[in-house]
Design a protein that fits this description.
Bound molecules: 5'-O-[(R)-(carboxyoxy)(hydroxy)phosphoryl]adenosine, zinc ion
Number of domains: 2
Number of helices: 11
Radius of gyration: 20 Å
Strand content: 15-25%
Helix content: 40-55%
Shape: globular
CATH superfamily of the largest domain: ATPase, nucleotide binding domain
CATH topology of the largest domain: Nucleotidyltransferase, domain 5
Oligomer: single chain
Structural class: alpha/beta
Order of helices and strands: EEEHHEHEHEEEHHHHEHEHH
CATH class of the largest domain: Alpha Beta
CATH architecture of the largest domain: 2-Layer Sandwich
Distance between the termini: 26 Å
Length: 331
């Protein structure tokens, strides 16, 4: 089955074509980062308008890169939450219109489930049970997946997500928006132990909290804004403590859930320090780790087509009056 995926939950307008067995045919992403940069974050109203402008050309491009016309598409998958309501509505309306006009099956997909399925595009034969760490601009969750589509939440973010903390500190450092990738690059030149920062909620709980370490990093920054060596050290030190807690809690969850595979997904899974530290921890524990390539970690529609394609293949359909939900839960 050839599935067209559509993703417009935040500030990436994306469409992709995925075939059965998680085979990626095309993956087109039009980022709006440039538009939102001068505001230091995503402006929801602008995001919706830009999605309206760009979505149809992006879909055309995805079909063209896959080398197929719309008549070859056999199903539609679209993100219906969580995310910005206006932005989600643009994608869902487009998917419904195509489904109705072409009489195609259609399914709404949870964005977080999409992030997990990016791992299946990288590695189709993942063994269950899976423990997934989802780390993005809005989420920090530890999820057990005993089979396709079945989720139990082991831990969740209580306040700022890791990506949000990175973005807020990076913004104060003058690194622009979104700051995570630039913080990653800068941190590689700094000393991870140079600036003392508290380990964010390193207790026994499997929940995450990154607002305290964000505040500590912002306080440490005061008076050093123009000092390049300090900025490099702060970037390295902040990533050291955030990554240490992400890895520690994931390994603690491994003890609890005894998974066959660990997946790390979401935009922050593109972080080089998280990738290498998690690889090292899983190697030491002898557990299999799958982290999608960076382009499939940050928001994209291939992951939505992958998750939705599996749901469609198992007979699931969404009604044409499907609504979007900004806080749609995974489980
Ligand atoms: O999953 P995503 O694209 O959007 C959401 O669903 O939130 O994640 C975006 C987040 C942003 O906070 C961004 O700064 C962060 O992922 N991010 C990174 C890196 N690449 C993206 N954070 C650290 N290092 C990176 N290389
Ligand atoms: Zn995302």
């Amino acid at each position: 089955m050839l599935v067209l995926g559509i993703e417009t939950s935040c500030d990436e307008t994306a469409a992709a074509v995925v075939a059965d067995d998680f085979e990626l045919r095309s993956n087109v992403i039009a980022s709006q980062a440039e538009l939102h940069r001068r505001f230091g974050g995503v402006v929801p109203e602008l995001a919706s308008r830009k999605h309206i402008e760009r979505l149809l050309p992006v879909i055309d491009e995805a079909l063209e890169q896959a080398g197929v016309g719309l008549e070859r598409i056999e199903g539609l998958a679209v993100t219906c939450g969580p995310g910005l309501v206006g932005a989600l509505t643009v994608g869902v309306a487009a998917a419904k219109a195509v489904a109705l006009a072409r009489e195609l099956p259609f399914v709404g997909v949870n964005h977080l489930e999409g992030h997990i399925y990016a791992a299946f595009l990288a590695e189709p034969d993942i063994a269950f049970p899976v423990l997934a760490l989802i780390v993005s601009g809005a989420h920090a969750d530890l999820v057990v997946m005993r089979d396709h589509g079945r989720y139990e939440i082991l831990g969740r973010g209580r306040d700022d997500a890791a990506g949000e903390a990175f973005d807020k500190v990076a913004r104060a450092m003058g690194l622009g928006y979104p700051g995570g990738p630039e913080l990653d690059r800068l941190g590689r030149e700094g000393r991870p132990g140079a600036i003392p920062l508290p380990l964010p909620m390193a207790d026994e709980s499997l929940d995450f909290s990154f607002s305290g370490v964000k505040t500590a990093a912002l306080r440490a920054l005061r008076g050093h804004e123009g000092d390049p060596a300090f900025l490099r050290d702060l970037a390295a030190s902040l990533q050291r403590v955030v990554v240490e807690v992400l890895v520690r809690k994931t390994m603690r969850a491994v003890e609890v859930a005894r998974p066959a595979t660990v997946i790390v997904a979401g935009g922050v899974a593109a972080n080089s320090r998280l990738r290498s530290e998690m690889a090292e921890a899983c190697r030491r524990s002898g557990i299999r780790l799958v982290i999608p390539p960076p382009v499939l970690c940050t928001d994209n529609a291939a992951m939505i087509a992958a998750a939705g394609g599996r749901r469609l293949a198992s007979g699931e359909r969404s009604p044409l009056n499907l609504s979007v939900q900004s806080d749609l839960p995974l489980a």
